[in-house]
Design a protein that fits this description.
Helix content is about 40%, strand content about 20%. The chain contains 10 helices and 12 strands. A hairpin with a 5-residue loop joins strand 10 and strand 11 (about 210-215). Bound molecules: nicotinamide-adenine-dinucleotide. Nicotinamide-adenine-dinucleotide binds near residues 65, 93, 98 and 122. Keywords: NAD, One-carbon metabolism.
Length: about 280
């Protein structure tokens, strides 16, 4: 079995030791990127064993994306900036699982939260949950914080960074380091001042400062702790996927990418609920 997170191990075995696949019963993959790579291999007809996509399992989506981010967004912001949330105007880009977690936590502490979305269903959900749906360009001049959670790239552009007000905090909770165009800030007219670990002031010629956290990488992974309970749930789900692939009778799984069977997902959920009894 291959237990992977990001697809690097799978890639390494493909490149260096392809013959190993003769004895491999399956791959279990945890991350968005790794799953994407597996689907590409499958599409190209190059996947030589069954693979299980744990990233899209309900326990991962809820525990890692929604509930973990709901807790760690506040921890990451507090540890880096000591900011007070009450009354602050915040824009959260993306109202998927991560965005929902961030918005809930910020609202609970009294921040005034608005949301940007490109998907009408998620935009409607934001609206019905009491968040104003806006375009980033409409609010970028007035907000105190901009948080990206989209999984997309260039969600915050240099032009928008130019228009932010002095002291605006900018950070990313979504995909690795693509969401904020940080590269565009590394130009001679802007000065970077490292004020503490993972916190940079980017200073414009007129003295305006934007507070950039973790250089646009994931705020919670760089600057906060992640509850071990969440990691435990994810690891358990992976173990269930390994067991399912290993014990499956020949022919149940072909050389393709599968989601964790609902029965296994439910086992993981009931197991989790037992922790709270
Ligand atoms: P998701 O697909 O549920 O939500 C993403 C949302 O962003 C979607 O609703 C989509 O319509 C919206 N979106 C996409 N492009 C946009 C844009 N340009 N402007 C506004 N909205 C836009 O995904 P998710 O589960 O919320 O995960 C989001 C990202 O966070 C992924 O890259 C995921 O890998 C990452 N993630 C981070 C952590 C963490 O610990 N920080 C944990 C889990 C997942």
């Amino acid at each position: 079995m291959i237990l992977d997170d990001g697809g690097d191990l799978t890639h390494w075995v493909y490149k260096k030791y392809p013959s190993v696949f003769k004895k491999v019963r399956g791959i279990v993959e945890e991350s968005v990127t790794g799953v994407h790579r597996l689907y590409q291999l499958s599409k190209a007809g190059k996947l030589c064993v069954p693979a299980m996509n744990v990233n899209d399992s309900v326990t991962k989506q809820k525990f890692d994306n929604l509930y973990c981010c709901r807790e760690s967004i506040l921890d990451g912001l507090k540890r880096t900036t000591d900011v007070m949330f009450g009354g602050k105007q915040v824009v959260v880009c993306g109202y998927g699982e991560v965005g929902k977690g961030c918005c809930t936590a910020l609202k609970a502490l009294g921040a005034i939260v608005c949301v940007t979305e490109i998907d009408p269903i998620c935009a409607l959900q934001a609206c019905m949950d009491g968040f104003k749906v806006v375009k980033l360009n409409e609010v970028v001049r007035q907000v105190d914080m901009v948080i990206t959670c989209t999984g997309n790239k260039n969600v915050v552009t240099r032009e928008q960074l130019d228009r932010m007000k002095n002291g605006c905090i900018v950070c990313n909770m979504g995909h690795s380091n693509t969401e904020i165009d940080v590269a565009s800030l590394r130009t001679p007219e802007l000065t970077w001042e490292r004020v503490r670990s993972q916190v940079d002031h980017v200073i414009w010629p007129d003295g305006k400062r934007v507070i950039l956290l973790a250089e646009g990488r994931l705020l919670n992974l760089s600057c906060s702790t992640v509850p071990s309970f969440v990691l435990s749930i994810t690891a358990t789900t992976q173990a269930l996927a390994l067991i399912e692939l290993y014990n499956a009778p020949d022919g149940r799984y072909r050389q393709d990418v599968y989601l964790l069977p609902k029965k296994m997902g439910n086992t993981a959920l009931w197991g989790t609920i037992r922790f709270f009894e």
